[in-house]
Amino acid sequence: MADLVKRIQSRLSRKSISLSKQDLTREIAALGYSPQALQEEEINTITQLLLDKHQNTELIVSEPEEIAVNPSNEHNATTANSTAITNQQKEQLITVQAQSLGIELSELEITDISQTVSDSFTDFVSAVETINSLIKEYAQSKFDDLEQRIDDSNNNLRDYIDNRTNSLQRKSIEGAITTKEVLEQKALALKASPKRYQQHSKHSKYLTFSRAFKLLSIVIPTLFLIDYCYQSISYHFKYQAYLERKERIQQYQNWMHYQCTEILTEERVNRCEKYWQAEKSGFFKISPPRKTTPW
Predict the structure, then answer these.
(1) Can you tell me the distance from the alpha carbon of 241 to that of 289, in angstroms, rounded to the nearest whole number?
(2) Do 12 and 47 contact (CB within 8 A), yes or no?
(3) pTM value?
(4) What is the pLDDT of residues 91-116, one digit of tens each?
(5) Residue 273 DSSP symbol
């Protein structure tokens, strides 16, 4: 891909911007691209970003007379070597870096992030690092908000199921108590007038127990059905949470792969070594939830 780097260098030279091949390679890497794996369609974007960077760099030089009078000369001297970037450059950098990190941002989200980025930096590399940090914080905030809403929805559904289950259990117990009271009333009536119910005692007992068994045959399957529905819904939400956690882990792995392969620096060596060891040991592997049956 050296020919593509030379083409970019040639285009910059025609715009009176002279960069050595080593400096150009370093600046392309700072933009989030790999100089060894450039694509044909990326040339125009990289060239425009470098043109915007070098054409908007302003050097502030103070006159000797102003040094003794103007107290802001110290600040001007500090910002003399700073790089100014426009809102369009900030949005372009945010879009490129978000795509390289595997994060999708809408136009409104890109605008919100660009408003928090400073208008000048000591160099272009610090601008890219700052934008990467802001994108990560924005994505983390969005993931936390989504996770909180999912937790709230799960808790609301769990409370609703618990309340309905308790209501059905209470009604079942009340029905059993009512049946017991009916049986006791029948027994007292038989004792009060044995002669009247003597010939029908066996038949009455049979009818009473028959009704009790019919009621229990309805109540018991209903309780089993409620328990089964609760277990099925609970497993569904646990599995959804497992999928979301797996997706977040995959996004983190993609981001670390990019950090440790594409833009590896000396400061990230120890962190990347720990990451490779954790990945090799299976630290990022998670198991799906176990489906349990109510009986």
Answers:
(1) 9
(2) yes
(3) 0.31
(4) 887 888 788 777 778 778 888 787 77
(5) H
